[in-house]
Structure formats: C-alpha cells, structure tokens
Amino acid sequence: MARDMSDKEILKMELEQLQKEVKNTREPVSKTAKEICEWVEAQSIEDPLIKGVPEDKNPFKEKGGCIIT
C-alpha cells in the first residue's frame, strides 16, 4: 500500500494515526493487568480450549468409521 503513496500522503496518514492515538486515555499497567487477569479467569469457565467440547457437540467429529475392504 505504501508503495503506491507519495511521501506526503504517507506522512499525512501517520499524522492522522498519531492524532487518534493522542486522544486515547492511558491507564497504568498495574491497573489494567489486574483487570485483564480477572476477566480472563472469569471467562475461562466457558472457554472450550480449557473446558473441552463434549463429543456430541463436536462439529469436527468424524461421522463414520473407516472401513478397509
């Protein structure tokens, strides 16, 4: 994408991105990390990668066995 753009267009795009980033409120890592950990632990109850998928609801389960004749 950047190959098709002039230097002026690239700088304009970067400036617009920086203006968006400046508007974001920043939070200390000590606060956000704790919140993220709490959220992950609360969601882990429903996570199929941790809990597993019951065989009757597994969409990737093979329908029939392999028969060699």
From TrEMBL:
What's a single GO BP term from this record?
G protein-coupled receptor signaling pathway
Location in the cell: Cell membrane
Q: Which GO terms describe its cellular component?
A: heterotrimeric G-protein complex
Q: Which UniProt keywords apply?
A: Cell membrane, Coiled coil, Lipoprotein, Membrane, Methylation, Prenylation, Transducer
Q: Which residues form a coiled coil?
A: 1-28
User: What is a GO molecular function of this protein?
Assistant: G-protein beta-subunit binding
Pfam family name, one: G-gamma
Can the keyword Membrane be found in this entry's annotation?
A: yes
Question: How is the subunit organization of this protein annotated in UniProt?
Answer: G proteins are composed of 3 units; alpha, beta and gamma.
PANTHER family given in the database record: GUANINE NUCLEOTIDE-BINDING PROTEIN GAMMA SUBUNIT
Can you tell me which family this protein belongs to? Belongs to the G protein gamma family.
Q: What does this protein do?
A: Guanine nucleotide-binding proteins (G proteins) are involved as a modulator or transducer in various transmembrane signaling systems. The beta and gamma chains are required for the GTPase activity, for replacement of GDP by GTP, and for G protein-effector interaction.
Its recorded name reads: Guanine nucleotide-binding protein subunit gamma
